[in-house]
Specification:
The protein has a single domain (62-382), classed as DD-peptidase/beta-lactamase superfamily (Beta-lactamase, 3-Layer(aba) Sandwich), CATH 3.40.710. The strands form four sheets. It has an eight-stranded antiparallel β-sheet with strand order 2-1-15-14-13-12-11-10, with helices on both faces. It is built from twelve helices and 15 strands. By secondary structure, it is of the alpha+beta class.
């Protein structure tokens, strides 16, 4: 009888402990949901997406808020624009070609594209374009101008043209010519850091030259289809495998809705991907779990160059170090990429957590890192 009583006590204690853990987990998930809701209550946010998951799925949230202008609800099957997260796709594509022996990171760009690069790297009357390497392009150390946000010699930059010429469909070579005609290089290759979409257009052209297929088809063949990324495609260039509920969640540049603009074609290899939280998390998982590229190539993609306080750039990957951004924050890192629309796709190696989503407004470009920091702080605090 005494033995049976002890067994009952043990079972009861086990069940109470399991129930306590379940309640704690439920409370943690509710807190994460509430934090997301708080960030989406701002008037500028018309729709927002958030997915977070641990490798063991002990934490899993996939949620969305908002409506289209016509009143229809956005859903988890509504693809959203990822903006510069597309750079991670392009850098991964280049890395796949390196792993296949078709490219090397130190290849000279001119050896692949010839005169296409002429005039893009002129400093004090000297053209350094023949010194440009794929490494320079991937790491934003080429010194070339950014046609999107730099101040042009004449006229306006692409960020302004995107709004004023919404019906213009930009082809890749047009973007290179636009840079060559209206912008000056910042420094000689390898002598600094300057974020530039021009570099990633050149990388896209290299991929097409080497593989002899369009960039969007390379993405489909080697990234999207192998990872079953059903809602992912290249905006204005291809369609996803799975028919989405709506073509694309509405994007806002401040108060202006731009999701149907043909001028978004100016992103191309630098950021034209539309996707979902699930697809993006699967993508970055595949990168870091060795299911896409080799371990040695992943290490090369993480050759960090200082970008700004607490921020570093590799090959299509950005790293945030939280306690460098704010000394009161924990020593956690986020590795992935952000987009100008408030989009994000990151991996936190210390917590083995993957986070993707967007706030779909260019006015929220900076707030996403504060949101992610608060999410990770909450999780790390509760796990102690």
């Amino acid at each position: 009888m005494k033995k049976i009583f002890l067994i009952i006590l043990l079972i009861t204690g086990f069940l109470l402990n399991a129930l306590s853990q379940e309640n704690n987990q439920k409370h943690r998930l509710e807190q994460l949901h509430q934090l997301f809701k708080t960030y989406t209550e701002e008037e500028v946010i018309r729709n927002a997406f958030f997915r977070i998951e641990t490798a063991d799925q002990s934490i899993l949230i996939d949620t969305v808020v908002g409506k289209f202008a016509d009143g229809e609800e956005v859903t988890l099957n509504t693809p959203y624009y990822t903006a510069s997260i597309g750079k991670t796709f392009t850098a991964t594509a280049i890395t796949l070609l390196v792993d296949q022996g078709k490219l090397a990171f130190e290849d000279r760009v001119a050896d692949h594209l010839g005169k296409v690069v002429t005039g893009l790297s002129v400093i004090d009357g000297v053209d350094y374009s023949k010194e440009l390497t794929i490494h320079h392009l991937l790491s934003h150390t080429s010194g070339m101008a950014d046609y999107f946000e730099d101040t042009p010699i004449s006229g306006v930059n692409m960020m302004q043209k995107l709004i004023t010429e919404p019906d213009h469909f930009w082809k890749p070579m047009e973007l290179i010519d636009f840079t060559r005609q209206h912008f000056k290089a910042r420094f000689q290759p390898g002598l600094g850091y300057h974020y530039s979409d021009t570099e990633y257009v050149l990388l896209g052209l290299i991929i097409e030259k080497v593989t002899k297929i369009p960039l969007h088809q390379f993405f489909e063949k080697y990234i999207i289809n192998p990872l079953s990324m059903e809602l992912t495609s290249m905006n204005l260039w291809s369609e996803p495998v799975k028919r989405p509920d709506f073509p694309l969640a509405e994007i806002y540049a401040g108060p202006i809705e731009i999701s149907r603009y043909q001028s978004l074609s100016a992103d191309w290899a630098g950021g034209a991907i539309r996707s979902s939280g699930r697809d993006l998390n699967d993508f970055i998982k595949a990168i870091f779990q060795g299911n896409l590229i080799s371990e040695s190539s992943l290490q090369k993609m993480q050759q960090w160059v200082p970008e700004s306080k607490g921020t570093y750039y590799g090959y299509g990957l950005r790293k945030w170090v939280l306690n460098e951004l704010n000394p009161s924050w924990p020593a956690l890192t986020l590795i992935g990429h952000s987009g100008s629309t408030g989009a994000y796709m990151y991996f936190c190696p210390e917590l083995d957590i993957y986070l993707s989503g967007t706030f779909n407004n260019t006015d929220y470009m900076q707030q996403h890192i504060m949101f992610l920091a608060e999410i990770l702080i909450g999780i790390s605090t509760n796990s102690k």
